[in-house]
Amino acid sequence: MRIGELARRVGVSTRALRYYEQRGLIRSRRSANGYREYDESDVRIVTEIRELMSVGFTLEDARPFVDCLRSGHPSGGSCPESVAVYRRKLAEIDREIRDLLARRSEVAAQFADACPGCLLRRGES
Amino acid sequence: MRIGELARRVGVSTRALRYYEQRGLIRSRRSANGYREYDESDVRIVTEIRELMSVGFTLEDARPFVDCLRSGHPSGGSCPESVAVYRRKLAEIDREIRDLLARRSEVAAQFADACPGCLLRRGES
DNA sequence: CTTGACCTTGTCACCGGCGTCAAGCTTTAC
DNA sequence: GTAAAGCTTGACGCCGGTGACAAGGTCAAG
């Protein structure tokens, strides 16, 4: 299939697909006229990329998953490199949550300091 | 005082101060040679900006606080506009925390799905 | 007079993931 | 035959908050 069909099937722009190719995440054969040609395995790969991105992974994060799929694994997340990324992302998210909680209380403290009573009226902690 | 001294006193780069001026957050008189001139009130304003930024406010978020200080209030956070920003930021942070928690469980679920047993060994929830 | 510290404006670069246009080719449908 | 749709590469723009550099003007000390 050509780029437009792949884009439609996965629900992504052709621009994004060309970008993924430029970053080396997907590949394409070229037909005689220069058009990119894809097959079913590319649908799988791009779907995996989008799933990962939908939960906050970057394209680089997705790379090991793509490699894992290409090497024949039925799941992109079962290779050691992918597992390492999973663990790293979980740790990252945990850190971000901790940072946000800390920031929240700092903001609430500044708020309470600058405007005593403002928070209480809303029942904030 | 000139820009270098203000920068040193608040602990911010001169580049940042010029940027704040360009964005209309601080102002400066110019001495005969074209140098920017500041006074104590500017120290207060820039300090307020940095405090807000340190807890994740953008420059635009800081604008009402600066206006509040300029209008003579002893605290930048006591004006209605500032209070609105505080509330908005708290709501924003709360939303981000919720999103992160949701993402965390999605990642954990994908992980568990792709690599059964990987998470359990770490005692993750 | 010169050095060096300080000031000026202006510009490019960064990071991620594209959107969007430009200018031109191919293919398909009528 | 032609218009529309689809494809190609290339390049700029965005967002925020600077860092870093260029190419100069200014001022005090030696």
UniProtKB/TrEMBL annotation, chains A, B:
<dbReference type="InterPro" id="IPR047057">
    <property type="entry name" value="MerR_fam"/>
</dbReference>
<protein>
    <submittedName>
        <fullName>DNA-binding transcriptional regulator, MerR family</fullName>
    </submittedName>
</protein>
<feature type="coiled-coil region">
    <location>
        <begin position="83"/>
        <end position="110"/>
    </location>
</feature>
<keyword id="KW-0805">Transcription regulation</keyword>
<dbReference type="Pfam" id="PF13411">
    <property type="entry name" value="MerR_1"/>
</dbReference>
<dbReference type="GO" id="GO:0003700">
    <property type="term" value="F:DNA-binding transcription factor activity"/>
</dbReference>
<keyword id="KW-0175">Coiled coil</keyword>
<dbReference type="InterPro" id="IPR000551">
    <property type="entry name" value="MerR-type_HTH_dom"/>
</dbReference>
<feature type="domain" description="HTH merR-type">
    <location>
        <begin position="1"/>
        <end position="68"/>
    </location>
</feature>
<keyword id="KW-0804">Transcription</keyword>
<keyword id="KW-0238">DNA-binding</keyword>
<dbReference type="GO" id="GO:0003677">
    <property type="term" value="F:DNA binding"/>
</dbReference>
<dbReference type="InterPro" id="IPR009061">
    <property type="entry name" value="DNA-bd_dom_put_sf"/>
</dbReference>
